[in-house]
Amino acid sequence: MVGKFVYSFSEKNIDGDASMRDLLGGKGANLAEMCHLGLPVPPGFTISTEICRYYYANNKNLPNNFHSEVKSALHKVEKIIGKKFGDHNNPLLVSVRSGARSSMPGMMDTVLNLGLNDDTVIGLAKYANNERFAYDTYRRFIQMYSDVVLGIEHYHFEECISDIKQENDIELDTELTVYHLKDLVGRFKEIVRSKHGKAFPQDSEEQLWGAIFAVFESWMSHRAIVYRKMNSIPENWGTAVNIQSMVFGNSGDASATGVLFTRNPSTGENKIYGEYLINAQGEDVVAGIRTPQVITTSHKKELELTTPSMEESMPHLSKELFAVATKLEKHYKDMQDIEFTIENSKLWMLQTRSGKRTTQAALRIAVEMVEEKMITKEEALLRIEPESLNQLLHPYLDKNFKKQVITKGLPASPGAASGIVVFSAAEAERLSGLGEKVLLVRVETSPEDIHGMYASEGILTSKGGMTSHAAVVARGMGKPCVVGAGSIKIDYDIQLMRVGDVEIKGGTHITIDGESGEVILGYVPTKSPEFSTYFIRVMEWADQIKSLTIRTNAETKHDIEAALGFNAEGIGLCRTEHMFFEPDRIVHVRNMIIAQTLQEREKALAKILPTQRSDFQMIFELMKDRPVNIRLLDMPLHEFLPYKDEEMQILSKASGIDLNTIKHRCKQLHEVNPMLGHRGARIAITYPEIYEMQSKAIFEAMISTLKKLNFMPNVEIMVPLIATENEMKILRTLVERVAQAVMSESGVVLNFKIGTMIELPRAALLSHKIAENAEYFSYGTNDLSQTTFGLSRDDSSAFIPEYIEKGIFAKDPFVELDVEGVGELIKISAERARKVKPTIKLGICGEHGGHPASVRFFNSLGFDYVSCSPYRIPIARLAAAQGSVMSKMKEQV
Ligand code: ADP
Ligand code: MG
Ligand code: MG
């Protein structure tokens, strides 16, 4: 493999477009772009993601010419800076930073201060005229390099620092003198010798290559793999490696390091938001070791802090920083998350990326950026991940409940959560696996805790700020989170947390409020949220732009009302069998099933008819003129059968049929494979009187509604599980015959449509024939996926996770439509049906009707509607709008 693998930040021909991002990773591409914008970026270069892919494809070897490319790029940096890598008098130090195409915060490794050894540290001390700084940097380097490259865990070094502090009666790291730091460096090197079996590498070149390999290795670390899986990031992207000259935020009181968001990542408010630490380096802010100070004075006042804001302590530099922040936001047209360092009163930019944000913030930022004319409505709609709207359904605390607040921390991620206290990620995972609701309580969290955070209702930490690991990750997950609750003292050994004299053991119930930062003893009831004006605006825009109609799958009053609250435009699936399970009805239903003669069955059906009729009337009255698609009975009959003795006795009494006959009938009706058995249309072929009763109930309900409220309901009647055109023809005739009878009896003309569900591959392939007797098709994608894959939905959970792990399935096909296979079948079906009936209405009523990517796919096929469960309607509305925007964009290209 020959080619170019190394790109200097300042190279002219690179920009931040998508292909560059693929090649240089997000961090590398943005460093280059900031460089081109004329911002102060420490010089450096990026090793492209191709090398990482090459590394894994070629048994961890690298291309031949690659070595020399890195060398010459490093020479260029040396020239710009006027320092030399490995030089004893004036050494160039670098950071070696990972960076994939999309940011994976904290997932992969970075080494700072690389190039230091026993000689260069002396050169650094002389050059900076600050011996303490040089040795402080050296000990940081040994610790970080040992952790990342040599695999020696942090705590060995942390313990050593504690020892020295204790021996010398020191409290803060900043109080360590040169003498202590030299001592520390010696002890650190001893740790390396004993754990690693070799001395700490003194050769700068060796250090550099060690770190480069470590970054490649970190791409396949357990935590990176887990993160990729949870965020659907493909493994073959690989990571880039950025090598950049160091700037030192730890070189005295005119130096600092910090993180800044151009808008509030929690609320979206258009105000700079961030944290900094004086005389500190890199991860110090995020690691939660020292509690950082805030950047703006208004933020300081909000939190009632006493430590000075950056605006107060470094007024000129803050101005410069804010100007850069504004420039970056305008340039990228999005809220930015920025890393900066100040070295001896000079500002340096180290990173910028689109900031992670809560859904509330995403909505507000999108709406306000449209108002500021920074982006268009279409762009705004594409900015919001439909699935994230789920977060808005977060409950909040009932204000009227008397709660016992024990302390307050920083409100890091909104929503309220109650659960029992657990002190480790492993325990969180274990107990939640047993069905417990748990709250993870930690001093601080690290990437190793991700699993446990996922398993928890919420996260509480005693240290760290709004940009700490816990805060950032919780916001991403949409989990309530309170951080930096400093009055909490946690003792992991005895599984106890103390707040003043309140002692809380693991397993105790507590509640956190991510909106106020309150930590509350015991359980507090929660309430459902109301929607912000930003949410409403975005939904209005979505409705203006989308062409798909969004219906809902619902049949109960409760669900229909919820769906209408979310602007459901119709019912796409009303499952009549759900109405059969009510306790006062099931007896008659059972009676109908075990009936052995037509007369017996008709008698039972006559008892069910009035209840069905009043159900339909309730639905029509709620839905007004919106379409209501009613599916006739679709369920294996035996699912209704009694299986307990006492249920059989009740049935025997009600029906007059003796117990033994009932038992015998139940046995007879048992099916080996009910999913492929006597269900759907097949029931009506053998027992037409069931569909006759249901049709009659529908038509009579239409007439009662017309008489009562003076409108004709918009009814669609759907026959499930059709495989052949003959089934369709027979059942259509049946429904029409009933309609005729009702019409002549009542003298009212009924308008309605008859359609079918397409859920069998045969039906999909023969759609042109089936369409002759159907005004519409609704694709039942649950069953269609099941029958296309030959995969039972009820049994597949045993092995689908392994299929996903092994890369056989990209996604669970019951969650996200398999566009390649099932999607193709739907496409073929739609084409064939439209050929014979161009006006045929097409819709979706499987789970996939609420899955964003699937909704966008159905939009691309020009479908009329999708139908989903009530709470997924906002998600489907937004996804449908995104689908429209995307196809418009395609047309323009
Ligand atoms: P991550 O992707 O985990 O944020 P980074 O590569 O951004 O990792 O680096 C970790 C920390 O080190 C960040 O705070 C960053 O600002 C700091 N850092 C990275 N490179 C340098 C450098 N050349 N000089 C000073 N600080 C740096
Ligand atoms: Mg980091
Ligand atoms: Mg970073």
What does this entry show, briefly?
With 893 residues, this protein is of the alpha/beta class. It has 34 helices and 33 strands. The protein starts with 5 loop residues before the first strand and ends with a helix.
Please characterize this protein's 3D structure.
The chain is an alpha/beta fold. Helix content is 46%, strand content 17%. It has 34 helices and 33 strands. The protein has an eight-stranded mixed sheet. An eight-stranded parallel barrel has the order 26-27-28-29-30-31-32-33, surrounded by four helices. The protein has a five-stranded antiparallel sheet with strand order 1-2-7-5-6, sandwiched between helices. Helix 16 (425-433) links the parallel strand 16 (416-422) and strand 17 (438-442). The longest helix is centred in the C-terminal third of the chain and has 26 residues, at 598-623. The chain is elongated, with a radius of gyration of 33 Å. The structure holds adenosine-5'-diphosphate and magnesium ion (MG) (2 copies). One magnesium ion (MG) binds next to loops.
Helical stretch tally: 34
* Strand order across the largest sheet: 14-24-23-16-17-18-19-15
Identify every distinct bound molecule in the structure, by name, code or SMILES: adenosine-5'-diphosphate, magnesium ion
Which residue ranges are poorly predicted, with pLDDT under 50 across at least 5 consecutive positions? none
> Overall mean pLDDT score?
91
Radius of gyration: 33 Å
